[in-house]
Amino acid sequence: MSWFLDPVGSYGLFSGQSACFLPISKWLLSTGVTDRRETPLQKTIRYYIREMVFFVKSPETQTAETYNFKFKPMNPNDTFTLAHLSDPHMAYPGGSRFSDFLNKRFFGYLKWRLRRQSEHHGDVLVRMIQDVRNCQPDHVVVTGDLTHLGLPAEFAKAKELLEALGSASQVTIIPGNHDAYVDGALDCRLLEWVDYMVSDGIKVCDGTDTVVSSLFPSLRVRDGVALIGVSTAQPCSTFLAVGCIGNDQLQRLQKILVETGQKDLFRIVLIHHPPKSGVVSWRKRLTDAEALQKTMQDYGAELILHGHSHHPSRTYLETSHGRIPVIGVPSASAAGEDPRRRARYHLYRLSRRPDGWDIQVSVRSYVHKEKCFDTEDKYRLAD
Ligand SMILES: [Fe+2]
Ligand SMILES: [Fe+2]
Known about the structure:
- Helix content is about 30%, strand content about 20%.
- The chain is α/β, with parallel strands linked by helices and about 375 residues long.
- The structure holds fe (ii) ion (FE2) (2 copies).
- The site of one fe (ii) ion has 7 residues, from loops.
């Protein structure tokens, strides 16, 4: 079945000076120059391209302070609808090189064949995409694990998924641990997704390690809603699926939370690993969850959305700013022999109230018999 539903041109963010680097970077990607087995000459070419990109925009300047946004808070009569889906785990091991599997992927592939292949179905994902499109949300977020083994073919298929969901200005993604499955997997293919990740007003044309780390936390503002992306994706050893934010990213996150809070925006933090303990097992945890919790307690947010758990979860972070809802969704492609793990996505209807925010949640879940998505539950989050 083809994943290619409705492609939308998605390099609209590239313009001006950076535009000249894009064709070069795309060419390098297509010829495999950005792969890790590159020659010294190819490495040198990539190094200088990266340096040129940094000359155009230094990562140190990528704070909310310098973004040329119209920070307009939401009007009382306006509503904003956000769709949240996660963990599609698109697996395409066929056609890969034998050498691609001489690492953690070998065990990941075995596990896929033995168990997960029967859990994740491409046609469930296609139906979810169609249902999301029918609901016409103002924006869509995908919280990681778009790929399963971080293979180049999976990154390409995931790009088709994103294009089917909408344009880069309508869809925001963050990576998950499966996207960074082995060292270099995410960095080498970043260029395919970067326009769905990058902050408003930032131009990035190269998919190198340093650029990846400078992308997050990302900030996109849509109709008074601040979408703040945090990356926890990192390669880890064979039987672990842990994530880490890191001090540098946390410090930049604090600044963004302060500035978007002062502008009275509705702040949504997007993160792959759940920030609260107990949602996933120890081997899948966020290693610096306590530091993130402290940040949220000090600087606040209105909502935290995550993936990774593959089951629905709703918890709260208690802070001096009030309770922050922390909500996760199951995998977007789970056929769901176990009903709890069946594919679901959430629609958030956000609006202003005189005393705060109104957050209505609609849970759309996969119905086996009809092979379609339907509303399973509706509830309201109190702030
Ligand atoms: Fe996942
Ligand atoms: Fe994950």
